[in-house]
Amino acid sequence: GATQSVTLMKGETFLIKSLIDTLLFRDVATDLSGTYITSTKRIGVVSGHTKGAIMRMSDILPPTGMFADDAHFVRNNVHDVMYPTTLAGKSFVTIPLMYSPTRVVGQGSVEHGIDDDRGDVIRVVGLEDGTMVRVGRQDGSGMLNKFILDKGETRVETALEFATYWESDKPILMGQYGKSYAKILAPKVTVGGGSSEEAQGHPTVEAGMPMLQMVPSIDRWITHATFSSPDGMDDFVNIVFKANEFSKIQFDGQPLDTLYRKSLRLVRGTDYAYIRTPIQAGNHTISSLSDSVRWMAWNYASLDG
Fold this sequence. Notes:
The chain is mostly beta strands. 1% of the residues lie in helices and 36% in strands.
């Protein structure tokens, strides 16, 4: 609820930090999301966390045994440039993120202090009081009232595993988080019943870092993009578009429907479809054959294990 004004010269920065309260460790009450920032001239805002994990992770992984240690390997600095409120919108499509095919989730690690590791986290930020946010039902049977937001209020969907259509009656901002990841191996037991001398309950190295992607509204979809995917990583791209325009989009100069026909998936109850697929490292281009063909794409990379 605090307010403050500051005058910045060209090239200067100003840091806003949440109040440090050790009693609210890993508590949503310390979240600065929804802070309202205005300026008389153009500025950029970068928001993030120095040690974030997208889902909540235990403090010690593994919790017991000779390998018990701080769970620093499933947390990292996560930050991104925030969209201005002028880029808010009323309709969105979110596509689930892709990872290495060796990733294992849903192992029920609640006893180790790990939240649900399935799917992605979707965060919605309200810009006006009384904003109704609705979500498309997964069976395609219509819309479901999901959140009512006031100005600056945020809500999250914690484990979304499906492509989803969203709409609101007033403009909102939306972000999508890929999750940190860790898998605990249970202690091995010898035939005689005693513990073996091998690693006891150690975590695997399959620990990805948290990731944030901003989700543009459908009215901000584009016709052309060029990007580079790095070497030494698992590289992916998600593209969402109108299903009947699948053949009117090209990837690296080749028709999308020729390259990725088997990857096509429909967003149920809508006119939209999407692909998500691994891609090779290097430079890539996505382009429309017509200015009327609009789509949105996200390129990203991870290293699971």
